[in-house]
């Protein structure tokens, strides 16, 4: 059974207001009519909760599309395989819970390191107890910060400085978390460990821009080539000096708050999203005076804390060191220097800079295994990206052949297809290097005109993507307004080993198994009628239960099974399962043919039925936020059994809900 999330289904904007169960009149519109109200008197928590909890109906088009997808998928027999056996998964869970050490992600994507818990705690305390870098904050400033942001946004909206749409887009509705301190091993340097903050976001250009700038750069005679990098740039940046320098330059156009929620006194948190831009701008303000005075420099390029200098003659480095004040800059001058992933040298014959691939000695070539649970295009894109990068970097074709051969050996060791590697390597090798230097112009027209659908990728359900596309075309024929749209389907991945062992992510219990258990109370007469499996079968189809419970569970949608006839009765109740099933059993036992109207009594009191062996019940779903949602699930499940599975139901009345707010196989959010 394929489980769909309600947010995978689209909504028709034109008729949205007609099919909602609650008024969709925005609270913001109501509040902006009276602009004399003070912002401080408005309960933003109420406004945010209302923005999150609109009971929007699922459109008929969505229901039709789901029906077509289900019908087309029921006859498909997918394979059920996994890259981890049950024993391996159990061992992994045990390892994650009881491992006596910490698994740390290395800097520069160089694999992982193992540090004992005692040493890890000792290293963390060394950094956190440094009073020059960190201070203790007694109260969490995050809630006040969020409240100020939301109130400022609301005030801007009241004054018509921003639109309602922008307000709803920027409003912080969900819970935010503070950054977490952890250790990042730098095994490519002599210094082993440096502090690092979670949620790193690298949003800068790579060395490709340098290759573009040097493509038409001709140098008459051999230049002096310098390569340098700052020592612990983020950690050593003085917040006060950095803040004063930036605010002086920006003339109060942008507000800065360099003190992180972690109370970091010295340096800038490497995990904050503005960190790279902040460091880039700060270093630029320090170096710009030196750049305006130096004349012998042919090329000056910098990638955050890495610097490349090409000069006509030897330069005086002392002036460069002085412009960076307290920051320590290490400079290397040689015929060949390493800069990012490049080896830069001078070609006397061509009078140009020559580039080659720089591979760190610690690079182990552990590329993604083809047996991993990833889409097929990933395993094609990895060799393609590697060979393209090598061809773009290497000025000489001979160097490309050398490094592509080395990469091919690494990929073969990881069980990549030999024919695919050779094919891609040859195709990239014949390309003109200059054609690979410009950045690609990525078009987003397809995405903007598409209805986006996202679900977790499973290699056992590869057919699902094409199935959705095909059934969307069928739905288009029934609803003409969809002709202007196409489905855009993309995946999210399950947590991998790195996320599980390093970041302590939770393992998805997929598939989840839910059972209806006996309450085991003394003299409970309903326990004997509990259906003990976690699914019900309809022919050769398996329908999973979506919640666990027992006789005392209330607010449920339940199923009654006739074991003899393999027929079903679907119902809902706000009462407990025990109370509702007892009412059904009482009605069956007291049923009088031709005198009483009770479908269950008529069915189970007919000939050759034994209520003690043929009557079974189970909970399908529980815990609904409203009676309407519970009745919506009941109606949807009845229609699913009746129209999609074409099952004969014991029910005589079939509720019809045009405005459904939740679906049977969707997780409640």
TrEMBL record:
Stretches assigned to the GIY-YIG domain: 553-647
SUPFAM superfamilies documented for this protein: DNA/RNA polymerases (SSF56672)
Signal peptide: none
PANTHER family (UniProt xref): REVERSE TRANSCRIPTASE (PTHR21301), REVERSE TRANSCRIPTASE DOMAIN-CONTAINING PROTEIN (PTHR21301:SF10)
Listed name of the protein: GIY-YIG domain-containing protein
Organism: Brachionus calyciflorus
